Amino acid sequence: MRRIFLILFVLVLLSGLVGGGWALREYRAFLDRPLIEQGTARIWLPAGGTLSTVVGDLERLGLTRSDWRWRLLGRQQGVALAAGEYAVDPGMTPAEWLSRLADGQVVRHRFTIIEGWTVAELRAALARDSRLRREAGTLAEETLMARLGCACPAEGRFLPETYFFQRGDSDFDLLSRSHAALNETLAAAWQERRDGLPLDSADELLVLASLIEKEARVAAERSRVAGVFVRRLQRGMRLQTDPTVVYGLGPEFDGRIRRVHLRTDHPWNTYTRHGLPPTPIALPGRAALDAAAHPADGDALYFVARGDGTHHFSATLAEHNRAVDRYIRGRR
Question: What is the pTM of this model?
């Protein structure tokens, strides 16, 4: 009998050793095996989610099996998981991915506000971005700006840049950051402005920068365009810039400016009114704000588009009219 028990004990021991060896090999292979070979997968871990939550998502994507190996790895690493969206990159092992979750290395998305957009174009682009939670989309502009702490028109009050965010952030979060960036950049531009500008406030600098943004398509011309506008303001001349007319027309503009548009008075029509428009007409970028604060010296009082993105600058009306004949009427 004792011999039988000894044989059984040896068999059980051998079975355990064999099973343990198999389990060890399986676990090591699991640790070394990439979750994904090509492409990238995205996993969302909600607040309060656990390791089994995300491993279940991985299993549903066919990337792993939710079994004892993940439970053992979780106990070994002893991590607390942070909520958010996580990427599974090619070649990433289970331990590497779990470390990413523990470190809170969430996916960062980007949203770019384009220089020269109107605030309406900005809000339309935000509404199309499904990665952002809706919070500001239905707010009237006055309500939106009040929530941002600014008793001002919304136009021009958001700085064009690329902003990074994570899934779950709201459109209001992004607008708030952009508005704060604009305020900081505008304050710096106003503080560092050239002496003698015909501007009474930073708000007027912002308006001027928006005109420069819409007129100067070539970076090298921003300060020259700013110089023309500043000299015209100093001499009491009307600015006579087409983008202000287009802005005032709003949805009625069909893509072509006609003489009737230039003669139709409205607050933004710089052909019928002196001085700056009452509000910005677009979102100016850092370069346009800098150009408004540091316009180029010179004697040019006019400019006309050549049709290639650049302008011909003129010091006299006679020279300007010849340029118009060449570049505008000649094209027609």
Answer: 0.84
Give the tens place of pLDDT for each residue, 4-62: 554 544 444 444 444 456 567 878 888 888 888 888 888 888 888 888 888 898 889 88
Q: What's the chain's average pLDDT?
A: 89
* Structure tokens given for 21: 């060896």
Residue 82 has pLDDT above 90, yes or no: no
All domains in the chain, ordered by first residue = 32-107 (3.30.1490), 109-186 (no CATH), 194-329 (no CATH)
Two tokens, residue 179: 């508005």
Report the distance separating Cα 115 and Cα 286, nearest Å: 9
> Over 50: is that where the pLDDT of 125 sits?
yes
State residue 37's pLDDT score: 84
**Helix 171-191 crosses helix 202-215 at what angle (to 10 degrees)?**
100
